[in-house]
């Protein structure tokens, strides 16, 4: 199956899961328990993540826990030429919704790649090796090409699919946290 088809079917799967909020929340709680117990979380001081849409893995509880543990949260803004830049946010940060439906912070507190300890990389479809299919803009692939910190993704078992080949420019995340371990590799 082609990436475009997988992307579209993956979005359908995520939206169907979102129609069952109790099931989605239970899966999120399972994944978050693993993530919060990990060395990646415990050692991170600066955490990059998106502000999720309604059908994606909900990142709000991660932000709240990070702030409670005095960690810094950074959220991306899209730039020209499909680039990303991350900005520090807190509970009072305002957001604007882009034409793609993504919330970006109204913040001038830019944080460099070198300052981000762990990046929670979003996606729609993931292979067990950590390769991902995102929304198709290539923003994260470009960012990850020069990022040296830890990478991981929080993935519902419904998003796992090994029936595709990554492109030469695709970069895998180092670790996947999921509610199903079958076939998933870890470091």
Automatic annotation (TrEMBL):
**EC id:** 6.3.3.2
Keyword match ATP-binding: yes
The keyword Lyase belongs to this UniProt entry's keyword annotation: no
**Transmembrane annotation, as ranges:** none
Q: Which domain of life is it from?
A: Bacteria
* Enzyme class per UniProt: ligase
Q: Which keywords annotate this record? A: ATP-binding, Magnesium, Metal-binding, Nucleotide-binding
The record's section on SUPFAM superfamilies has:
NagB/RpiA/CoA transferase-like
Task: Enumerate the catalysed reactions.
Answer: (6S)-5-formyl-5,6,7,8-tetrahydrofolate + ATP = (6R)-5,10-methenyltetrahydrofolate + ADP + phosphate
Q: Which InterPro entries match?
A: FTHF_cligase, FTHF_cligase-like_sf, NagB/RpiA_transferase-like
The record ties this protein, via Gene3D superfamilies, to:
NagB/RpiA/CoA transferase-like
Q: Which cofactor does it need?
A: Mg(2+)
Q: Which NCBIfam families match?
A: MTHFS_bact
Q: Describe the family membership recorded for this protein in Swiss-Prot or TrEMBL.
A: Belongs to the 5-formyltetrahydrofolate cyclo-ligase family.
| Protein name as it appears in the record | 5-formyltetrahydrofolate cyclo-ligase
- Species per Swiss-Prot/TrEMBL record: Candidatus Enterococcus lowellii
